[in-house]
Each structure stands twice: as structure tokens, then as C-alpha cells.
Design goal:
The chain is mainly alpha-helical and 197 residues long. The protein folds into two domains: 96 residues, no CATH class; 87 residues, no CATH class. It contains six helices and no strands. The protein is flat.
């Protein structure tokens, strides 16, 4: 298990460098493309011709999506840069999450039956907290609670939040029950861990 965790650490370090350089290159592309499109660089010069020949075909799918969404074609490189940064952050967070799960599993198995029970308790509370976070974020976005992306969060969190809504009044039309539920889950988890530990 230690070798797998070390491999995850090495993969994350390599991926961070690759993503950083990809973001730097994309930022340079976006800046030069903006300079060409705003005619600060001669649009008929060698730089502009090279961009049109080699980079515009790669940015064409992004440009089509931006235009379909009502944006300007000139902003396509910036949207590509933003998408690259967000995808890199999500990918690194996913790697950290999997490495954390493997480390927790390794420690739980090494501690015997109590460790495994403690690990299951930790995972249950972590999933419930994640469901509450996803539900709150989904409420800020135009997502239906029946959407396949967030339905699981509503299914897991509603039995916790429904009773709390009777006890916790809204503050200026803001539902405070997710905050209270999150705190209650943290307290309950620490109680369970102290009993098991």
C-alpha cells in the first residue's frame, strides 16, 4: 500500500508540473491571440499566420461553444485557459481524494477491526457532509433536485435536513439547516470516533 501511495504522490507531482506548463502555454496563446485579434500585432504577419494555421483549428471547438453560448469568438482562448485550470484543479483534487482514501484504508486495516469500523464511520460521515455541500452548491445553480447529477445528494441529505428545518428558522430567507446539519455531523463523528478510539 505504501508503494501505491508513493506512486500517487509521484503522479501528482508530475501532473502538477505538466498542468502548470500547459496553463502557462495556454495563457501565452490567449495573450498573443488577443493581440492579433485586437490588431496590436499585424494580423498578416508571420505570428498571426502561424496562429491561424496551427492554433485556430485546435481552438475551433471551444470557439464554436463560446459563440453558441452568446460569447465573442475572441474570448475562446481565455475560456480554454479557464477550462484547463478548472480541469487541472479537479484532476489534482480527485487524485488527492483517492490517495486519501487509500491512506485511510491502509491505516484502518493496520488497526484491525476497530480501525475498519472507524474507517466506515468516517466514510459515512464524509459522504453525508459531501451530500450537504453538493446540495447547497446545487441550490445556487439552476439545477433541478431531480437531475441525475445531484439527486443522490438530495436523497442522502433530505432525511437529515427535513427535521432540522422544523427547529432552525430561516434567516432572511436563507436556509440555515445545512450549516447546522454540517456542524451536527462533525460533532457526531467526533463522538463516534472517541467511542471507537
Amino acid at each position: 500500500m505504501t508503494a501505491i501511495l508513493a506512486a500517487f504522490g509521484t503522479l501528482r507531482a508530475i501532473l502538477r508540473v505538466v498542468l502548470l506548463w500547459a496553463a502557462v502555454i495556454m495563457a501565452v496563446v490567449a495573450i498573443v491571440d488577443w493581440l492579433v485579434r485586437t490588431r496590436r500585432i499585424n494580423p498578416f504577419g508571420p505570428v498571426a499566420r502561424s496562429f491561424r494555421k496551427y492554433l485556430d483549428p485546435m481552438l475551433a471547438p471551444v470557439e464554436h461553444r463560446v459563440v453558441r453560448a452568446g460569447g465573442l469568438p475572441a474570448s475562446a482562448p481565455w475560456w480554454a485557459l479557464g477550462a484547463l485550470i478548472v480541469a487541472g484543479i479537479v484532476l489534482l483534487a480527485l487524485l488527492d481524494f483517492v490517495a486519501g482514501l487509500l491512506a485511510d484504508l491502509s491505516h484502518g486495516v493496520a488497526a484491525g477491526p476497530r480501525g475498519i469500523i472507524g474507517l466506515v464511520v468516517y466514510w459515512i460521515f464524509a459522504i453525508l457532509r459531501l451530500a450537504i455541500i453538493v446540495r447547497v452548491l446545487a441550490s445556487w445553480l439552476p439545477l433541478s433536485p431531480h437531475s441525475r447529477w445531484v439527486r443522490w445528494a438530495f436523497t442522502l441529505s433530505e432525511p437529515i435536513l427535513r427535521p432540522l428545518r422544523r427547529w432552525v428558522p430561516p434567516f432572511r430567507s436563507i436556509d440555515l439547516s445545512p450549516i447546522v446539519a454540517f456542524i451536527v455531523l462533525l460533532i457526531l463523528e467526533s463522538l463516534f470516533r472517541s467511542v471507537l478510539g
